[in-house]
Structure formats: structure tokens, C-alpha cells
Amino acid sequence: MDLDRPLENSAEGDKSAIESFLQGERGDVPHQKPADEFKSEENRSEGESKTDEEPQPMQPEPESEPEPAEKEEWMDILGNGQLKKKVLKPGEPDSRPTKPDVCEISFEGRLEDGTVVDKEDRIEVFLGDNDTAQGIDFALALMDKGEEAEVVIASRFAYGSLGRKPDIPPDAVLTYRLTLHNVRQELPVQELDIEKRIAIGLKKKERGNWWYTRDEHTLAIHSYRSALEYLDDTDIPGSPDESRVHFLLDERLKTYNNLGASQMKISAYDAALTSFGHVLSSQPTNIKAIFRKAKILKVKGELEESIEVVRHGLTVDPGDKSLQQELSLLLAAQRKDNTKQRNLYKKMMGNSTQDNGTEKKKQKSSNYGTITLIAVVSFAVAAIGAVVVRYKIT
């Protein structure tokens, strides 16, 4: 089917039929005589009287002028022109998927010059889990089962300013032919066997890694959290092989490590510490988790704790260059911090000594004034006494 050709509307055919009919009645095409016109003169003479004018057939009069075929409408999903959808083939009414339904889809994405650069056939994605381009994820929520649509996606909701080497350039607008084949609900995790859990979990973990390499850390965090829901050994049906359980748990710890790294990128340090805590509780010698935990503690200003974590890491791997370098930086920062504290203490003590000296000087001055006042008062009293005595003698 031609992607650029609009679907024909049934109203267009109705309009053509009506116009053709009216043209015939207006004399634009030859008007066929009724069959009665070809009766013989003998039949006419037996009682039929020929009229001067032929009776005109009844003409249908439409109640209103036929409306032109409606133009195909684009749905502006976000209201800013960056994500638009047009229905090419309607699906089953009231059959839209909801999160976290599993959608079976096919799509073909083209650049503005028509080059096909992104194509998948009958893959399954979880709605709302960013398993594919964001624009496709948004559009699927507005499609019915069996629907085919054309979706125009701005780069922001496709492959962004990075593009995808070698075929998708930066800031590329993509036009997709998208088909929603089927919608189903996934079973709860508790009802999935270990192989299904591993398959779904690894797929979501890899998607998180993809987002991480593109510096889309919030989307990476979402994918990693989704992966952790499936990389779980709780209540696995049947009796799974022990080696597969160990594999699942190992992938779970790797996912936690990656989750913590993404959380560090958006400065969610407390959440990252929790993620690394999950790793270290099961693998106390995990160097990646040790190093990243030390980094976070350093950023939070907890140098003593950070140094302790790094030293623990060096007991695990004494030759690790990254840990050695980090310890040197931490010790230097600690010395600098101690120097600042000493200088601050000295400054505080210096001000205290100066304040004490000033207080003593004020006290000494006050004592001197008191003595002087007493002397003056004593002299005055003596003088008055002398005058009184003199007066009495006289």
C-alpha cells in the first residue's frame, strides 16, 4: 500500500454516484425512453391516448447537497506537533491496550527522504516500559487491536540529538507505519517459570543499558527497575535447575549495580546507596559496588566512611589501580579538611583570647576609676570636716 496515498472515503464514491445520476437527469447523457414508448400504433388506438408530452420520471431530491469527502485527520497526541498519528486501517473498537499489557507490533520507520531505517516484524513490547521508541510507546496507547496507523515522531521521542549510527542522523524526524496485531495480558511474575523470567528480565536490562549509553538515565532507571521485577527467584514454579537460579541472581545483582550507577548520574545518592547495598549484602567483594559506594560517601562529605570502604576494597583486590588512586585522593581531601578545621579552631581560640584581654583591660580601668572616686570623696569629706571644726573654734 502506498504510504503517502490517503485512504479513499466511502463518501467520495457516494458523491460520484449522485453526481452521475443527476447529470443523466439533466440531459448530459442520452435519456432512455420507457418501454411503453415502443408499443405499436394498434395498441395505442385500442384505448391509449397519446399525450403531447412524455411523463417525466420521479427525480430523487436529496435533502441537502452531498458533503465533500472528509479529509483524513491527524491526531496531535501531545498538542505540540511533535507526535502525530493518523489511522490507516481501523481496529476493533474498545480494544486499546493498557499498561502493562503485552503488545505484538510491526513497524517500519522512514526518514523524511523515504529511506527505511527502523523496521521490526511482530515483536512483543510491554506498553509503558520504553521497550521501543517513546513515540511508538505513546501511540500504541491510542490504538485498537488490529489497527494500522501512520505516526510522525520528532527526534525528541525517537533517537534524539544522538541519532543512531550509521543510519539515523541526529535530530531526525521519523515517520512510522505501525501495526498493532494483538494485545494480551502477561501472567503475574509468580506464575512465570525461570526461563521466562530470565528472558524478559535480560531484555529489559539490555534496554536499560541502551538508555544509559545515550545518557537517558531516567529511562534507564525505569528499565532496570522493570528488569528487577522479573529477575527474582521468589516462588518459582516447579523445580528449576540450581545453576539457572544462580544465573538469575547474578543478573539481578548486575542490574542493581547498573541501577545504582544510573541513580548516581542524576544525583539520587541515597537511592544509589540502597542499590549498592543490595549488591554488597550478597557480594561483599564486588569491586564495582565498593568503588561506587565510596564515591557517593565522598560526595556526601563522609570522608572517614569513604576511606574505610576503599580500604576494605583494597583488602579484596590490593592491586586495583582505581581504588589506590581513590584512596590517595581521599586522604589528601581528609588532610585538607583537617587543616581547615585546625585553622578554624585557631581563629576561634584567637578571638576568645582577644576577648579575654579586652575584658581584663576594661576591668582594670573600672577598678582605677573606682579608686579615684573613693579618693575624691574622702578628700571632700575631710575638707568639709575641717570647715566645721574651724567654725566651732571660731
Please work out how many helical segments DSSP would assign.
10
In the CATH hierarchy, what is the architecture of one domain at level 2? Alpha Horseshoe
Distance between the termini: 146 Å
Helix content: 40-55%
Structural class: alpha+beta
| Model regions low in confidence, pLDDT < 50 over at least 5 residues | 1-55, 66-70, 386-394
CATH topology of one domain: Serine Threonine Protein Phosphatase 5, Tetratricopeptide repeat
Number of strands: 6
Shape: globular
Q: How is the main sheet built?
A: 6 strands, antiparallel
Strand content bin: 5-15%
CATH superfamily of one domain: Tetratricopeptide repeat domain
Overall CATH class of one domain: Mainly Alpha
SSE sequence, one letter per element: HHEEEEHEEHHHHHHH
Write out the strand line-up for the largest beta sheet, numbering strands in chain order.
1-2-5-6-3-4
Mean pLDDT score, rounded? 81
Rg on CA atoms, Å: 45 Å
Task: Summarize the structure in words.
The N and C termini lie far apart (146 Å). Helices cover 51% and strands 12% of the residues. Among the domains are: 10-39, no CATH class; 75-186, Chitinase A, domain 3, CATH 3.10.50.40; 207-335, Serine Threonine Protein Phosphatase 5, Tetratricopeptide repeat (Alpha Horseshoe). The model is unreliable at 1-55, 66-70 and 386-394 (pLDDT under 50). The chain is α+β, with helices and mostly antiparallel strands and 394 residues long. Strands 1-2-5-6-3-4 form a 6-stranded antiparallel β-sheet, with helices on one face. It is globular and about 105 Å long. The chain has 10 helices and 6 strands, in the order ααββββαββααααααα. Residues 100-184 form the PPIase FKBP-type domain. It comes from Cimex lectularius (Bed bug).
